[in-house]
Amino acid sequence: MILDAGGITFIDSTVLTLILATHQRTHLRLANLHPRLTQVFGVYGIDHVLNIYPTVDAARTT
């Protein structure tokens, strides 16, 4: 499953929990993250848990 997060500029704990739960149940790939989300994921170390790609095309080919 690929989530194109290009339009998401803010998430709260509920959405983050949903993303992590989905990641546990399937092969979730996040693509096209806004720089704010990239920063937040990095601060909490989530970027080491999730599969994050710079573009949707990159997420498709992996």
Descriptive terms for the model:
15% strand, alpha/beta, globular, 62 residues
Round the mean pLDDT to the nearest integer and report it: 94
Shape: globular
| Head-to-tail CA distance between termini | 12 Å
Q: Uncertain spans, ≥5 residues at pLDDT below 50?
A: none
Q: How many strand elements?
A: 3
The biggest beta sheet is recorded as: 3 strands, parallel
The secondary-structure element order is EHEHEH
Which class best fits the helix and strand makeup? alpha/beta
Rg on CA atoms, Å: 11 Å
By DSSP (H or I, 4+ residues per run), the number of helices equals 3
Tell me roughly what share of residues is in helical segments.
40-55%
What does this protein look like?
The relative contact order is 0.24. The protein contains three helices and three strands. By secondary structure, the protein is α/β, with parallel strands linked by helices. The model has no long low-confidence stretch (mean pLDDT 94). Helix 1 links the parallel strand 1 (2-4) and strand 2 (29-31). Strands 1-2-3 form a three-stranded parallel beta sheet. The protein is globular and about 30 Å long.
Short summary:
The chain is of the alpha/beta class and 62 residues long.
Topology:
Layout: E1 2-4, H1 13-25, E2 29-31, H2 35-43, E3 51-53, H3 56-61
Parallel strand pairs: 1-2, 2-3
